[in-house]
Amino acid sequence: MVVLTGAGMSAESGISTFRDAGGLWEKYPVEQVATPEGYAANPKLVIDFYNERRKQLSHVKPNHGHELVAELERYFQVTVVTQNVDNLHERAGSSQVIHLHGELTKVTSSWQPNDPRFIKELTPDEYEVKIGDVADDGSQLRPFIVWFGESVPMIEPAIEHCMEADVFLIIGTSLNVYPAAGLLNYVPDGVPVYLIDPNHVPIASGRQVHVIQKGASEGMEELMKLLLE
Ligand code: APR
């Protein structure tokens, strides 16, 4: 089973989504805090923005929806493919999580952000990154986040899992951002697709999708009943 998740997965944990009313991109101009150009123009603003997000991580917990996604592992071999940069799937117990858009708990080199030699996991007491903190190549430490306009290296393993899925589940994403939104196109015909979201999410491919129009926790309860009873 492949589970594709977005910001709505973590909404019930108290983390804002991006595009709903009051979402993050309403409060912070996306081009300032989530593009390489924004980072080049004002690295401190960007570093501080992610310091705030990281600080928030210490105060939030996985919700019941995350817990039920982890529980799916009792019945299926599950790969979670998430657009989220939080670590709530892991903290709920999911053992195989692919982060398409990076991870808040990691930092990397500003010069070679995808070089594994420079990617570093922060301990909670290191969550506040400062201007002047450097990676092993001497460049400023930057958040290990995939910004708009950057390549998405983890899309390749995600595609491979989608091509082998027997069940595909989408939770809490508006499917606005590619390449993540295109993953459904790699799921073989005939594979059942479920979508949990309290709002209407248009599916571009016209593919048959079983929609559970509920929040992540309630929707996962319903899905477990459908799949397991
Ligand atoms: N449970 C499930 N889904 C929810 C809930 C909830 N309680 N509350 C809101 N949602 C849904 C919304 O209806 C919407 O469809 O979550 C979705 C959130 O959509 P976006 O804010 O667009 O977030 P996402 O799709 O994850 O964004 C993709 O865009 O800005 C970038 O890199 C960022 O990873 C992010 C990417």
Could you walk me through the main structural features you see in this protein, from its secondary elements to its overall organization?
The chain is of the alpha/beta class and about 230 residues long. Helices cover about 30% and strands about 15% of the residues. The strands form two sheets. It has a six-stranded parallel beta sheet, with helices on both faces. It has a three-stranded antiparallel beta sheet with strand order 5-4-6, covered by helices on one side. Helix 6 (about 65-70) runs parallel beside helix 9 (about 215-229). About 40% of the residues are buried. The mean pLDDT is about 95.
Summarize the structure.
This protein is an alpha/beta fold. The chain is built from 9 helices and 9 strands. The chain is globular, with a radius of gyration of 18 Å.
CATH homologous superfamily heading: TPP-binding domain
Give the strand order, joined by hyphens, for the main sheet: 3-2-1-7-8-9
Count of DSSP H/I helices? 9
Rounded to the nearest angstrom, the radius of gyration is: 18 Å
Helix content: 25-40%
- In total, the number of strands is 9
Q: Write down the overall mean pLDDT.
A: 96
Largest sheet: 6 strands, parallel
Features:
Rossmann fold, six-stranded parallel β-sheet, binds adenosine-5-diphosphoribose, three-stranded antiparallel β-sheet, single chain, 229 residues
Write the layout of secondary structure elements.
Layout: E1 2-5, H1 7-11, H2 24-27, H3 30-33, H4 36-41, H5 43-57, H6 64-71, E2 79-82, H7 88-92, E3 97-99, E4 102-109, E5 120-121, E6 141-145, H8 155-163, E7 168-171, E8 193-196, E9 210-212, H9 216-228
Parallel strand pairs: 1-2, 1-7, 2-3, 7-8, 8-9
Antiparallel strand pairs: 4-5, 4-6
Helix pairs in contact: 6-9
Bound molecules: adenosine-5-diphosphoribose.
